Amino acid sequence: MKTIIIIVGVTALYILFVVIKLIKLNRRAKEIALRAKQDRAMQPEEEEAPDLNDDDTLSLHDRQYIACGANLAYLHGDRMDTLETDSDQEEIRAMLKREWHINTRDKLLNNIDWLVNHGHRVYFKPIWNILTTLPVRERAVELEKLQSEFTAKGDEISVDLYASNISEGYKHLREEAGCFEGKKCKLDALTWDLGRAINLCRWGYDAGFLSRDEALGYIRKFGKDLLHNYTTWTNLGENYLMGFAMWSGDLQELDEAYGAHCDLLSEDSSPWVQLESR
């Protein structure tokens, strides 16, 4: 009888611990999202994200495909329901040159091709595999081997830096914001690559580098790949965050990106909220 009482007591304490932990994670996630939203509110008005408006020229599926790039579009303050971003052409051209070193159609297509056929997920996948399948004492050797493989291919990235960024970013997002929950959660950073490619297509169209048919053709292909790969907007967006964490390594900027992610999942004007078929 005493044994049963002890087991029941321990079980009750464990359940209480889990409940308290979930409450703390939920509270922390809301705090991060609120702080990021307040930071964006302090920025100039022209940088604020626009409300979603109806556009009869796009099908439901086209709007879904464009919404697959919403993480970056939201942070840029771009319109999210049309192919057009509603930004001035010269401003877009200046941004593409400044942030992407793109000033011609060929350079735009080369960047899109790199994101689609290579991207940062080529680094993320083997690094993530090492971090999640090997004991800590064995990781350094395997990361060094991986570095040699990339170096031999003329790739000058730092495997150790990316591994550190991935580890810290994942821990931060999971423990502080409660990300990556659920059995169907996938981690591959695909959205970081294809989501940015979708935005490059939109900017390329606005900049005059792509025709409307070209831009939509690319976006449809990338969007289909993303919607096929993830079952929820939440998981789709989390993979943008993991790619950003690996690339940036800045936890403060990661919090801002996470805040935008939360807005996209909750705001009535968000395409992720309005496109309920996902």
UniProtKB/TrEMBL annotation:
Domain of life: Bacteria
Keywords from the named record: Membrane, Transmembrane, Transmembrane helix
Region (Disordered): 37-56
InterPro entries (UniProt xref): DUF1266
Record domain DUF1266: where: 95-275
Membrane-spanning ranges: 6-23
Compositional bias segments (type: Acidic residues): 44-56
Stated name of the protein: DUF1266 domain-containing protein
Origin species: Chitinophaga filiformis
